């Protein structure tokens, strides 16, 4: 049970036999400890010290022999998002935030678990997302997951997590249908597109003066929901929807629709899709000479949109929800001051 050093230490301090009353025992004790000293009662004052040393050796041996008791339990948490394709910038940013949060949680002195991140690419594709979800729920060490940026992907994976009773937090998708599913295992931390489209529609009609609006969106759940929202909120604000066109996800040619809009006296084009298609639409609006503002919500609030649209991005207006000023946000804010932007 004891190591070699501890056994040697014990041999050098503990008598060989019981009370050590024989001559040989006394001579050994004299050689090891010097002249034997006793108190008035004839007790050896060093016996207490020897017991303390022995107890300390036993305690230290137990500590070093069982380090596993001090280890934290390990769990896994999954992340899913677009890490490739046209929406990768959104997914990579979210992934970095996810990994930072885990790093901070593991570094906390009172942390009860050691968290291992599991990062998977959903490629903004529902089928790929379901494959990633199945990989997570079939790992017994995964206790929860967070995903996605695209609403169609989130709507495809939610039933998987519900069936396996694994918690899922939606970090980016904003379709109202996510909430309408009312699944006990699923929650969200972003507002729905209704809370973005309503104030945008009111501002567009009343402040910008865009009374006649053309709507272009994709045929995904996200695109359809945006189209339905604007078709409701713009008339409520006193405006008019001149036309509504829904195209398949990934469409790259909007010229026919845009050319037809030139003769309809519109004031603005509302686009209910995402980054790459939004950039292509903005470029083609400029190409056909449709000099009207393109307006949308946070679905294409991304530097990649500017990279695709080029100079045509100058005529685009995008809404974006402001960050909630939570205590965590206020602690973070002072150490990351924004530098003033100067014209060059």
Output the keywords:
single chain; 10 strands; 5-stranded parallel β-sheet; 344 residues; alpha/beta; disordered N terminus; 13 helices
Rg is 35 Å
Percentage of residues in helical conformation? 40-55%
* Global geometry: elongated
Low-confidence region ranges: 1-43, 45-69, 335-344
- Give the topology string: H per helix, E per strand: HHHEHEHEHEHEHEHEHEHEHEH
Question: What does the model show?
Answer:
By secondary structure, the chain is of the alpha/beta class. The protein contains 13 helices and ten strands. Strand 6, helix 9 (221-236) and strand 7 form a beta-alpha-beta unit.
Which secondary structure elements does this structure contain, and how are they paired or packed?
Blueprint: H1 4-13, H2 23-33, H3 46-65, E1 73-81, H4 88-107, E2 113-121, H5 126-137, E3 142-146, H6 151-163, E4 168-170, H7 176-180, E5 186-188, H8 193-206, E6 212-218, H9 221-236, E7 240-247, H10 255-261, E8 268-271, H11 275-288, E9 294-296, H12 303-309, E10 316-318, H13 327-332
Parallel strand pairs: 1-2, 1-3, 3-4, 4-5, 6-7, 6-8, 8-9, 9-10
Helix pairs in contact: 5-6, 8-9, 11-12
């Amino acid at each position: 049970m004891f190591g070699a050093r501890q056994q040697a230490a014990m041999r050098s301090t503990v008598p060989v036999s019981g009370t050590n009353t024989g001559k040989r025992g006394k001579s050994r004790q004299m050689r090891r400890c010097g002249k034997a000293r006793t108190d008035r009662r004839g007790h050896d004052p060093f016996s207490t010290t020897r017991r303390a040393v022995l107890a300390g050796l036993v305690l230290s041996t137990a500590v070093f022999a069982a380090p596993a008791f001090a280890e934290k339990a390990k769990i896994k948490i999954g992340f899913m998002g677009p890490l490739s394709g046209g929406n990768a910038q959104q997914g990579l940013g979210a992934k970095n935030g996810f990994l930072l949060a885990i790093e901070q949680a593991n570094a906390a002195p009172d942390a009860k678990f050691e968290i291992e991140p599991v990062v998977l690419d959903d490629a903004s594709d529902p089928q790929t997302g379901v494959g990633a979800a199945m990989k997570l729920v079939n790992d017994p060490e995964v206790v929860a997951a967070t995903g996605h940026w695209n609403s169609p992907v989130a709507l495809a994976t939610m039933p998987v997590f519900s069936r396996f009773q694994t918690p899922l937090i939606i970090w980016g998708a904003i379709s109202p249908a996510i909430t309408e599913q009312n699944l006990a295992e699923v929650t969200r931390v972003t507002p729905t597109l209704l809370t973005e489209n309503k104030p945008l529609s009111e501002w567009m009609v009343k402040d910008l003066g865009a009374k006649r609006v053309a709507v272009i969106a994709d045929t995904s759940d996200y695109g359809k929901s945006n189209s339905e929202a604007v078709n409701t909120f713009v008339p409520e604000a006193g405006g008019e929807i001149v036309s509504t066109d829904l195209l398949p996800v990934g469409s790259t040619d909007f010229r026919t629709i845009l050319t037809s809009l030139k003769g309809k006296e519109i004031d603005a084009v509302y686009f209910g899709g995402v980054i790459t298609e939004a950039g292509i639409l903005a470029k083609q609006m400029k190409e056909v000479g449709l000099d009207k503002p393109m307006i949308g919500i946070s679905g294409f609030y991304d530097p990649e949109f500017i990279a695709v649209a080029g100079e045509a991005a100058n005529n685009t207006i995008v809404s974006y929800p402001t960050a909630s000023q939570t205590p965590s946000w206020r602690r973070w804010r002072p150490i990351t001051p924004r530098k003033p932007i100067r014209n060059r």
